[in-house]
Amino acid sequence: MRHVLKNSGTREDGEELYQDVVFEIYLNIKRGRYGEDGRGTFEGYFWTIAKRRWIDKLRKRKPDVYELPSGEEIPDTPEDEYLKNERILAIRKYLEQLLPDEQEYIRLYYFAKKSIQAIADYFGTTYGSAQQKLNKIRKKLRKMIADDPEFGTSLF
Predict the structure, then answer these.
(1) Total structural domains in the chain?
(2) Which DSSP string corresponds to 82-111?
(3) Residue 68 lies in a domain
(4) Is residue 33 part of a domain?
(5) Are 20 and 57 in contact, with CB atoms under 8 Å apart?
(6) pLDDT truncated to tens, each residue of the chain (156 aa)?
């Protein structure tokens, strides 16, 4: 029981596990799969089966996820709102410093939600070139943000 309680289980889980283990040992004895052959004690045999069954149960268990009623979101704290606004202002500042075609890449990809292929078609280039250009622009933005003493690495 203590093993289950220490390892993400409840009292009911422990009781159920105990019943499962006793039943499994009963079946093993009945089938001749257990015998006192000097390789260990009955207690050790019991705990080995119990630990393995508990691990199996934990693997199969789905994570507990709390779902909010549809359309409802967890509200941001005032601090979260402030940080979000600061990030938006900073990103706007840095976007304005980009070249016009770089701004267009960012606008199409992040705000218009266009695919890289659609952006490549728009600029008359290949998929690989558009992807490489977008990566260079992101790297440039990261460097601009990291070099800014006001924000540095704390922005993201």
Answers:
(1) 2
(2) HHHHHHHHHHHHHHHTS-HHHHHHHIIIII
(3) no
(4) yes
(5) no
(6) 556 656 556 778 778 877 888 888 888 888 877 766 656 677 887 888 888 887 888 787 766 555 656 666 666 677 777 777 777 777 788 888 899 999 999 889 988 899 999 999 999 999 999 999 999 999 998 888 788 776 655 544
Q: Judge if 54 and 86 occupy the same domain.
A: no
Residue 30 lies in a domain: yes
| Burial bucket for residue 119 (CB in 10 Å: 0-12, 13-18, 19+) | buried
- CATH (domain of 91): 1.10.10.10
Q: What is the pTM of this model?
A: 0.46
Task: Name residue, tokens 């202002």.
Answer: 89
